[in-house]
Structures are given as structure tokens and as C-alpha cells.
């Protein structure tokens, strides 16, 4: 895949980039290693000052970087600006909380005595250069939620971004440099996916984090395992959205539309499978389908556009294949389902009902504005349908019954359960999944400690 900006609204190639050669890649690896030796000794105060400055600059750049993201991957420009604002807030959150999150911990006095020691502590130390392999769908947020905690922990970052968002990738490197971080603290590697394996095998790279597809995750995890390097993986998701009879059905249907089509439906944590109790199924389906059908699809640069184009022609083709397979196998198309005429990689908001286990869309992630509706006769069946997926990223449950909430929290196989609301990420909460959605956690204290050397310090009596 070429490293290029291709506008998904019209298919026009706007700018192409040459991949870095081996000499430039080596220079950057050397720089990362050398910079880490000194950056690791900086204080939390100095790191926070730099990260807060980066947040201020990002706020100032919000309009410009929003347009860059929209041009490169097609998200509505209002959502792009909101993504930039969210990144700035996350930077400030880690600047404020990192020192507390990584403070020395003291084991229980009884354990210290029992060990024969006089005192002990646990200290969090940085690992070194960390490789981040990031996707195009949230081209700022996916990177910042790695970079902010990594930099505050004293690590340095090497970004291999998706090849269709090179301008966003270069903007991020420039942002941290303008904020005052040393040149080697955060570097963008303009290389193709074929170079990832060699970079990860390099002894100077100490760990890796990847957000992306399951095949990409398998490849990185395999190499990292061979090299015995720590990894965090955030892969696909096919999140269930369960609606029970006690729910506010009107509200649940309204939120469901946003939950499905946010970011043009190209979000790992977007609700994709809508599992509705039979007592409220018809009422929910009517409202949900009407809401999906009423969305404005169009030019993502227009302020009132709600759904823009998919990020790539291949992505649209993949989505079409899932819908067509379901239709051939008997699924009912309640709205959408047909590619529109004209330029750009648009696909309409679509709702499918009557989905069965034999259909591909039941097992595979639909990365675009396509929802599947399921009818459940009770809580037990709702849980069975929700868990009948290879993925386990997040989940949504709508009920006013606390006993039902307890059951869903206990039994849903997911990294998060959002009750009466839409899944969202926040720097204060751990983010990640189970099963084929990956392992490890981003964000919160759990995320910042993923790439730390958790060091036991023991003193004899």
C-alpha cells in the first residue's frame, strides 16, 4: 500500500510520500536510543510541562488538523475537531496524574519483616523506545492515548502509522517537537507495513503496542513473542448493545444510532450487534431504523454531515460483501444496503434483521455503518447471543433492573460494560478487550504501567 493521502470523498490522490530508506530508519533508531538515555532521567514536572504545551498547541491547531484528518480518512469534520480536543484533554490528564499513578509503592510492613528485610518498595521505571503501530480510524486519538502515558512514564515513542494518514502522522511528530520535547522523544517512521517486523526485532526497541486488525495483531504478537518483548494489542470488536424491557426504549434507540455510526461506523468500540428483548423489539426496531435512515450522508467537510465516506475503496467492498452475503442467506434489509452512485467511497446507514450464525456478518466485524438486529426472549438468551462472537472489546446494556445489571456485568465477555449509555473511552478508565479483541490495557493507571519496568527494591535488615 503506498504512503499517500487519498481523499475518500472523491478518490483523488492528493499527496504521496517516499518510504524512509534503511539509512534514515537506522538514524532514527539510534536517535531514539540516545534520547531515551537522558529523557528517562527527567522529572515528572518537566515532562508535564512539555505535554501541557503540546495540548495547548493542539487546541490552537484544532481546525487545521481536523481538516487534515477529514481529508485523509473521511470522518465528518465536526467529529475530527472533537477528536483533537479529546486528545488535548487526555494529554492534560496524564500531565496531571502521571506522578501519582507511578508513585513508589510500599509493601505491607508485615511482608517486609517476613522477608527478612528492613524496608522495601516497588518502583515504576521506563522501558525504553516503544513501537506504536496505529490505525487510520482515529488517527490522532489512537496515537495520543499511547504517546501521552508513554512519554510521561519516561519512554520514547516510534510511530508506524497507517499508510493512508501520513500527514496526520507527520503532524504528530511536529507537534511534540514544537512543544519542546527532544527530537528523539517521538518520531514518525514513514515506512510500509513490511518494515514493522525488522523494527520490532531491533534490540533497541523494547516493546510494542498495536491497534488494528486481527492479522496485524497476530503478526506483531508472534514476532514480539519470539523476541520476548512486551506487547499491548487492541484489535477488532463487534460490540453487543442489549435492550431489556425496563429500558427507556426511545432513549436507547436514539443513542443506538450514534453508537453505530460514530466515525462513519469505523470504530472498534462502535455498537454493532443490537440484541433486543422480544417485548420491546418492535418498538426499538421502528425507532432505530427510522433514525438510521434519516442520517445525512455527504461531504464530510460540511458541518451538518453526519456520515461521510468510508476510508478506502477496499473497506467499502469488504462491507458490501458482508451485507450481500447476509442478504443472500435470508437476512432482511430494513434500510440502506445499496451502494450510492457517484464519486467517493460512501455506503448508506444499513440495518439487517434475521441474522443467523451461518452468515459472515454474525462472526466478522462490520467496519462501517451497518447494524444487525437480534431478537432475544430473555436475559439468558441475550447473554448467549452477546457472547457468541470471537470478539470481546466492549458492550452496552440498557435496563433499569439492578439485578439484570449484575448479571450482565458478571456474564458478558468484554473488557467493558456500559449501562444505559454508549461506550466511550476516557483517560481515567482502562481500555481494552478479551478474546480476539486483544490483551493488555490502554489509558488510566493500568495503561501507563503497561510499559514500565515494575521494579522491587529490597533492603536488608
TrEMBL record:
Give the source's domain of life in one word. Answer: Bacteria
Molecular function terms, GO-annotated: aldehyde dehydrogenase [NAD(P)+] activity; succinate-semialdehyde dehydrogenase (NAD+) activity
Any one Pfam family here would be Aldedh
Keyword Oxidoreductase: yes or no?
yes
What keywords is this UniProt entry annotated with? Answer: NADP, Oxidoreductase
Q: Which residues form the Aldehyde dehydrogenase domain?
A: 3-457
Q: What is this protein called?
A: NADP-dependent succinic semialdehyde dehydrogenase
Similarity-based family: Belongs to the aldehyde dehydrogenase family.
| The keyword Flavoprotein is annotated on this UniProt entry | no
Amino acid at each position: 500500500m503506498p504512503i499517500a493521502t487519498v481523499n475518500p470523498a472523491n478518490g483523488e490522490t492528493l499527496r504521496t510520500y517516499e518510504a524512509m530508506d534503511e539509512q534514515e530508519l537506522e538514524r532514527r533508531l539510534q536517535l531514539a536510543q540516545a534520547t531515551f538515555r537522558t529523557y528517562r532521567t527527567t522529572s515528572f514536572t518537566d515532562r508535564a510541562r512539555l505535554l501541557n504545551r503540546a495540548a495547548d498547541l493542539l487546541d490552537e491547531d484544532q481546525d487545521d488538523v481536523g481538516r487534515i484528518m477529514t481529508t485523509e480518512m473521511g470522518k465528518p469534520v465536526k467529529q475530527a475537531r472533537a477528536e483533537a480536543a479529546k486528545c488535548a484533554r487526555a494529554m492534560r490528564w496524564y500531565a496531571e496524574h502521571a506522578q501519582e499513578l507511578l508513585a513508589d509503592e510500599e509493601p505491607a510492613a508485615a511482608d517486609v519483616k517476613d522477608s527478612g528485610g528492613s524496608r522495601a518498595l516497588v518502583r515504576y521505571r521506563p522501558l525504553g523506545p516503544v513501537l506504536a503501530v496505529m490505525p487510520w480510524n482515529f488517527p490522532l486519538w489512537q496515537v495520543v492515548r499511547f504517546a501521552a502515558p508513554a512519554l510521561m512514564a519516561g519512554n520514547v515513542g516510534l510511530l508506524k502509522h497507517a499508510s493512508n494518514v501520513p500527514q496526520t502522522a507527520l503532524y504528530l511528530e511536529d507537534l511534540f517537537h514544537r512543544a519542546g520535547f527532544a527530537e528523539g522523544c517521538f518520531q514518525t517512521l514513514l515506512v510500509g507495513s513490511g518494515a514493522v517486523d525488522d523494527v520490532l526485532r531491533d534490540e533497541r526497541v523494547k516493546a510494542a503496542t498495536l491497534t488494528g486488525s486481527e492479522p496485524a495483531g497476530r503478526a506483531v504478537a508472534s514476532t514480539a513473542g519470539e523476541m520476548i518483548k512486551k506487547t499491548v494489542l487492541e484489535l477488532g470488536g463487534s460490540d453487543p448493545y442489549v435492550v431489556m424491557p425496563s429500558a427507556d426504549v426511545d432513549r436507547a434507540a436514539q443513542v443506538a444510532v450514534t453508537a453505530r455510526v460514530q466515525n462513519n461506523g469505523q470504530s472498534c468500540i462502535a455498537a454493532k450487534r443490537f440484541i433486543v428483548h422480544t417485548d420491546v423489539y418492535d418498538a426499538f426496531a421502528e425507532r432505530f431504523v427510522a433514525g438510521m435512515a434519516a442520517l445525512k450522508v455527504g461531504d464530510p467537510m460540511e458541518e451538518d454531515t453526519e456520515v461521510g465516506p468510508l476510508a478506502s475503496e477496499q473497506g467499502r467492498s469488504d462491507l458490501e460483501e458482508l451485507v450481500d452475503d447476509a442478504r443472500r442467506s435470508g437476512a432482511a434489509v430494513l434500510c440502506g444496503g445499496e451502494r450510492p452512485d457517484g464519486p467517493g467511497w460512501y455506503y448508506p446507514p444499513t440495518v439487517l434483521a434475521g441474522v443467523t450464525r451461518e452468515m459472515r456478518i454474525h462472526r466478522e466485524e462490520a467496519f462501517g455503518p451497518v447494524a444487525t438486529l437480534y431478537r432475544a426472549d430473555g436475559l439468558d438468551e441475550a447473554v448467549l447471543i452477546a457472547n457468541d462472537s470471537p470478539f470481546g472489546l466492549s458492550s452496552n446494556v440498557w435496563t433499569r433492573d439492578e439485578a439484570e445489571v449484575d448479571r450482565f456485568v458478571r456474564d458478558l465477555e468484554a473488557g467493558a460494560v456500559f449501562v444505559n449509555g454508549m461506550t466511550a473511552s476516557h483517560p481515567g478508565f482502562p481500555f481494552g478487550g478479551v478474546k480476539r479483541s486483544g490483551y493488555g490495557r490502554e489509558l488510566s493507571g493500568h495503561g501507563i504501567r503497561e510499559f514500565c519496568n515494575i521494579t522491587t527494591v529490597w533492603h536488608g535488615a
